[in-house]
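name: query_chain
kind: protein
chains: 1
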Amino acid sequence: MNDHADYSSDDDEAIEAYCVRCKETIEVEHPQAVWTRRGIPATRGECPQCGGTVFRMGSTAAHSREARPAAVQVGSSARTKLTQDTAYINFAEADAAIAEQLADDLRKAGIATWLHEESASGVHWAGGVHPALTECSRMVYVLSAQALDAEGVEAAWRYFRSKGKRIVIAQLDPVDPPDPIRRSPRFDLATDYKAAFRQMIQALSG
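structure:
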């Protein structure tokens, strides 16, 4: 089953999204109805100005024509095992669209990714933490004001730090990172996305 649906010619709904490269809201070109690995509806398309991939979370009329896929599971024998060099994208829910966009760009650069997810209520993992945290060897911490207030985001980077794993910071807002990881490499995506992204790739690959 395809994980996305192309908008047909009779869809006249204009889809807007924020492009982190152009730093403005644009009307999405070639929008596609997609679902994240958690089964959340979103729209993926291109920025008409820079040609980069953009994401917008939320459902549209196009989603109603396709069956919602099951979320990718972690921690079961049926799942595809994450490779150790997979990058864990750690972000607050408010930054989900930008995190999806960043993950898409990383995958295009040849870096496998896993997006942070809050554990469902009542889920107790055998190792005490989400299995993706134990399997991934590097983390991209999407730094924003919302991320600083998100308990799940903090728990994820604290676990990574306790294990001595590599953490790089993708900065969205002009805020200081948490003190324990202040020395982690930091890349200001809000000021110059392309240059910061190239530098971040080098830090992740080094």
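note: Residues 87-121+128-205 form a domain with the Rossmann fold fold (CATH 3.40.50.10140).
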